[in-house]
Amino acid sequence: MPKRFTNEEIELLSKSPYVKDIKQDRLTLTHEFRCILYDEWIKRPSTFQIRETLKSFGFDCSMLGKIIINNIIINFKRYGRPTNGKNKVFGQSLYSVELYDNSFLIDSRVFVKSRKGINFSSDFIDKAFKEYPSVSIESLLESYGLDPNKVGYHRIYELKRKLEDGEKPKEKISADAVEKYSGHPYIKRCTATHFTLKKQFYDEAIIFISYSIDEILGIFEIDGSDLPIRVRNKIKKQLISWNGDSDNMMIECDQEFRCRIQHNRMRALEKLSMMHFERIRKILPSLSPEQKKALCIWIRDLPHDRYDYSIRSILKRVGISKSSYYSILSDDNYGMKERQDEIDFEYIKKVMDYKGFRKGTRTIYMMLPDICGVHFGRNKILRLMRKYNCICAIRRERTELKTNRENLKSNRKPNLLKRRFRLARPGEILLTDVSYLKYGLNRTEYLSCVKDAVSGRVVSHITSSGNDLNLAMDTVDTLDPAEDAIFHS
Fold it and tell me: What is the C-alpha separation between 191 and 174, in angstroms, rounded?
């Protein structure tokens, strides 16, 4: 029975910008929103994905009802991406794709005629069974020069479903393989068209779910190449969805076979442990102190009956030094400093945000007790600001001033007089300076004179309208000093 909306629900849903039209027995979504739903659903085709997307856009799934959500999924499976959508809000669809006609698909030799229209050819299906899922159906179509969007999603979806469910009656198990596995302890039934494994196989193989299906079958001495791809895909699918509902009965087999299986399982477990240790080694630098502490405790609590799994070998494989391991275990407060730094930096951040103006370590040091009621040293404030990359912006240094200071320092002459002006003979020490002479309407003349330090007599003088290098050079030109005279400015 179709969903019937109440007047309150109609009024509430009509306010959504993603609803094009709503009546008591019908709800029409806008084309753009249906395209958004399709893009999210194609990532993970499930009802849960549709519900989560609707919730994220403000829809109440209980109000819409199960029938409307199922109809959305049915339309996606049947027609693929929404096409020819047009509404007043979003305008013409950008995703409209014109599909290939049947004659063109038949000429490509990927499709053949059938009673229900056209289907994929047997050659294409055989190739897809061999290469799927490592090579997608879309990639195979592109290798034949076809655009998957123009082929139609519903055709590709049906082929994927058949591949995943193992529907290929033409492919049979060889007679040699049937004879080979007729008495295998883990195989329940093996015929030319059927291959069934016992529940104990899935119980023991579930731990190796990260391996390929051929590797998993090889652990139990089953050669994957003897089985069709549809059978291996079906086993992999059952293994992924296995919930452990077996009767926990032991497999009846001879001792030699059991020892071989145990040996294969141990080798596979060692390989699996090496893979997990390598994964821990890669993520170790990004772990927080609390996570490193938990990792060291986990290593300590592991059973170390075998030499291969000693603490030293495990630490070497995960990339933790022995000294760091024991230091972390013995330190009850390990990781607390990191947490305390975060708490203390919140106080500093509160002061920095106070009234919005920029603050350095000195200002924060003075304002912390009044604003937060805590007191930190300037070194700690600077350390936390550097740690969390929250340094106060300061005035940029002017390089030209620094260069001028360095030039003055390098060209500075030694102090020969040391203020002993009168301990010489007349004419040996000459003093010079410039005076400002104001006259007229804000006019200035510059007087440069030379004085004898011993006698106090003005040796020469000169005036100029500018206080520049020419004034200094003209002053020197007026003098006739002795050879050992000192010219002091």
Answer: 9
Which pairs count as long-range contacts for 114-122, CB under 8 Å and 24+ apart, including other chains?
120/155, 120/159, 122/170
What residue has token string 């106080």?
347
| Spatial contact of 171 and 98, defined as CB atoms under 8 Å apart | no
Is the N-terminal amide bond of 133 cis, ω within 30° of 0? yes
For 396, the enclosing helix (H) or strand (E) is none
Q: Global pTM?
A: 0.40
Q: How far is CA 167 from the centre of its chain?
A: 39
Q: Cα separations (Å) of 50 from 16, 19, 71, 207, 319?
A: 17, 16, 11, 31, 43
Paired tokens of 222: 């089953």
For the record, the structure tokens of 122 come out as 């047997």
Q: What is the pLDDT along the chain (489 residues), one digit of tens a residue?
A: 567 788 888 888 888 888 888 887 788 888 888 888 888 888 877 888 888 888 888 888 888 888 888 888 888 877 777 875 444 333 334 344 567 778 888 888 888 887 767 888 877 887 887 788 788 888 888 888 888 888 877 788 778 877 776 555 456 788 888 888 888 888 888 888 888 888 888 888 888 888 888 899 999 889 988 888 878 888 888 888 887 765 666 777 888 888 888 898 888 888 888 888 888 888 888 888 888 888 888 888 877 555 456 788 888 888 899 888 888 888 877 877 778 888 999 999 999 999 888 888 999 999 999 999 999 999 999 999 988 888 776 667 788 888 888 888 888 888 888 888 888 888 889 999 999 999 988 899 999 999 998 898 999 999 999 999 999 999 988 888 888 888 888
Rg of the chain over Cα atoms, rounded to whole angstroms, equals 44
Scored b (16 or more CB within 10 A) or e, 216-245 reads bbebbebebebbbbbbbbbbbeebeebeee
Amino acid letter, 106: I
Tell me how far apart the alpha carbons of residues 215 and 221 are, in angstroms, rounded to a whole number.
Answer: 10
Q: Which residues pair with 452 in a beta bridge?
A: 430
Q: Output phi, psi for 317, to 5 deg.
A: -75, -35
Residues written for the chain? 489
Listed in sequence order, the residues at least 6 apart from 463 whose beta carbon sits closer than 8 Å to its beta carbon are 437, 445, 446, 447, 448
Q: Which residue do the tokens 């030039």 mark?
A: 407
Of 270, 126, 139, 261, the residue nearest 211 (C-alpha): 270
Contact at 8 Å (CB) between 157 and 77?
yes
CB-based burial label for 251 (10 Å; 0-12, 13-18, 19+): middle
Residues 158 and 114 sit within 8 Å (Cβ to Cβ)? no
Residue 376: CB atoms within 10 Å: 19
